[in-house]
Amino acid sequence: MRVLVAMSxxxxxxxxxxxxxxxxHDVVGVHLALSSAPGTLRxxxxxxxSKEDAGDARRVADVLGIPFYVWDFADRFKxxxxxxxxxxxxxxxxxxxxxxxxxxIKFSALAARAMALGFDAVxxxxxxxxxxxxxxxxxDADKDQSYVLAVLTAEQLxxxxxxxxxxxxxxIRDEAARRGxxxxxxxxxxDICFIPSGDTRAFLGARIGVRRGAVVDAAGTKLADHDGxxxxxxxxxxxxxxxxxxxxxxxxxxxxxxxxxxxxxVGAADDLDxxxxxxxxxxxxxxxxxxxxxxxxxxxxxxxxxGDGVAELRDGRVVVELRTPLRGVAPGQTLVxxxxxxxGDEVLGSATIAR
Length: 355
Known about the structure:
Blueprint: E1 2-6, H1 11-22, E2 26-33, E3 42-43, E4 46-47, H2 51-64, E5 68-72, H3 74-90, H4 97-116, E6 121-123, E7 128-131, E8 134-137, H5 146-149, H6 154-158, E9 160-161, H7 169-178, H8 200-208, E10 213-216, E11 222-226, E12 253-258, E13 263-267, E14 274-284, E15 294-299, E16 306-314, E17 317-326, E18 334-338, E19 347-353
Parallel strand pairs: 1-2, 1-6, 2-5, 6-9, 10-13
Antiparallel strand pairs: 3-4, 7-8, 10-11, 12-13, 14-17, 14-19, 15-16, 15-18, 16-17, 18-19
């Protein structure tokens, strides 16, 4: 099988490439250049896709004896991931850019080019598993990335390979060291790759500008001014610009964002309870939508925010009625449905939370 391996320059994709070689496949490595100024996208363990990362990936490919290329996806990444991220925040939403990158870059633009060039599959270093065409959680629950892959269609999954999803991360590092790969101890990237400073509010402010509005309580009383709704997310507690806790002496949290009026509402923790989720643009990883209500586990954040409920497709939207409430749920987030078997590891589908 001809396999194109997306090599970020980190330990995970490096071991994924090595395992594909060991399996006897015809392997080619490719590094995605996602920035027109790649030297700006790594600060220690923050960011990715820098010149350093490209060099690391090339050296791994040399050790493995496979061809290696760098493909320029900077324009597509800016349009489909960065611009989408900024626009979504301007609408008062809380998007996950890793979800969009997998959906629109790695398993859409990249996969399409790979298939056009005659490759049979695209392999990545994601922590997830495929079994009989079904997407499942990784063995390493702490590193599981099935959540950010749940937007993939059945056709995209048919051409995907996740070689390391059956192995805990510490063993992946040990394996890389045994293979003599210099990236064995390289720090994992974290936070948002295109914001290496980690200051999301400053990044958004520079692109959206000042859009002043008010922070109000549940009664509509103005508590403070702000410079833009992009500086807030549902469930946020710090940086609200208000003096002290609420009248009951308890902390206050962002409970609602109205981008049209630039109003940010705050309230008590109990006001964050959500019992019903409505998701748009559903994707079902089996390729077939459910014909009636289904018991499921629902996850609303990449790590955490998991609850039991019943999901149903209504007028093209996924509606989930939760058995216990979730908190910190915001429009723009992705809801992912899992089959509630004893393992709870099969992904059923996903949708973008509308309300």
